[in-house]
Amino acid sequence: MNDMNRLNDNALDQVSGGAIFEASGISGHDPKNPWEVLNEKGEVLDRAATRDDAIWLAGKNGVSRDEVTWDDVLKMRGLK
């Protein structure tokens, strides 16, 4: 990771909406990149191999670093 692209803690506190989600076991997930970075509607913005990478990508994409469950994802997508 390039330090020039990292957000400081204050910037991370300003992000809102979205989340990270570990999609292993969910039909259609990418086995090489099981972590998904989601926007507030549950749409996949990015994928990552590790939780730490997903957290970094969430910051880069301006979304929350909060981890959610599949049930939460379904609610974000308006399917539940």
Explain this structure to me?
The chain is an alpha+beta fold. Helix content is 29%, strand content 16%. The chain has helices at 9-13, 51-61, 70-76; strands at residues 19-22, 35-38, 44-48. A hairpin with a 5-residue loop joins β2 and β3.
Keywords:
80 residues; alpha+beta; 3 strands; 29% helix
- Rg, rounded, reads 12 Å
The count of strands amounts to: 3
Strand share of the residues?
15-25%
Mean pLDDT: 87
Identify the overall geometry. Answer: globular
Stretches where pLDDT is under 50 for at least 5 consecutive residues are none
Share of helical residues:
25-40%
Straight-line distance between termini: 36 Å
Biggest sheet, spatial arrangement of strands: 1-2-3
Structural class: alpha+beta
Profile the largest sheet: 3 strands, antiparallel
H/E order of the elements?
A: HEEEHH
Annotation field: number of helices: 3
Draw up the topology in text:
Layout: H1 9-13, E1 19-22, E2 35-38, E3 44-48, H2 51-61, H3 70-76
Antiparallel strand pairs: 1-2, 2-3
Brief summary of the model shown:
The chain is of the alpha+beta class.
